[in-house]
Design a protein that fits this description.
Helices cover 20% and strands 39% of the residues. It is an alpha+beta fold. The chain has one domain (14-138): Nucleoside Triphosphate Pyrophosphohydrolase (Alpha-Beta Complex). The strands form two sheets. Strands 1, 2, 3, 4, 6, 7 and 9 form a seven-stranded mixed sheet that branches. Strands 5-8 form a two-stranded antiparallel ribbon. Strand 1 (14-23) and strand 2 (26-32) form a beta hairpin. The protein is globular, with a radius of gyration of 14 Å. It starts with 13 loop residues before the first strand and ends with a helix.
Length: 139
């Protein structure tokens, strides 16, 4: 995705994690609220890793912050390199087969529980499209 951007080519990528949360054959998509870039697009929840965190630690923290849930992180799904004009990112996706707590939205406007096949019809954030495809190949 993206392409070569000379301004960011020398910067290390920002490490980002995302969760494909699955429950009873459906996966959770979260719609980005109007306060964030790519507002209105659907995504797999997650966020930036902090210094010293493993991917799974970062994912658990991000899901607590964004959705107020305690995630049981399962298998690694895939990583996707993203190059944008103002930044480069490496997105690491993990399967979350179970979680505790009640979902509360803190930075999304809504959620949807959909089958993976239905998820492709949603306006997904571009970085999440290959993650969905990788998840579907694993099933």
């Amino acid at each position: 995705m993206g392409g070569f951007h000379p301004v960011t080519a020398s910067l290390p990528p920002i490490e980002v994690v995302a969760a494909v949360i699955e429950h009873e054959g459906r996966i959770l998509l979260a719609r980005r609220d109007g306060r964030r870039d790519q507002a209105g697009l659907w995504e797999f929840p997650g966020g930036k890793m902090e210094a010293g965190e493993s991917q799974t630690q970062a994912l658990r923290r991000e899901l607590r912050e964004e959705l107020s849930i305690d995630a049981r992180v399962g298998a690694y799904i895939a990583s996707e390199y993203i190059s944008l004009p103002d930044r480069r990112m490496m997105l690491h996706a993990w399967h979350v087969p179970a979680f505790g707590g009640k979902i509360e939205l803190h930075c999304h406007s809504e959620i949807a529980w959909v089958t993976p096949a239905t998820a492709v019809t949603y306006a997904l954030a571009p970085a999440d499209v290959p993650i969905l495809q990788a998840f579907m190949r694993l099933k």
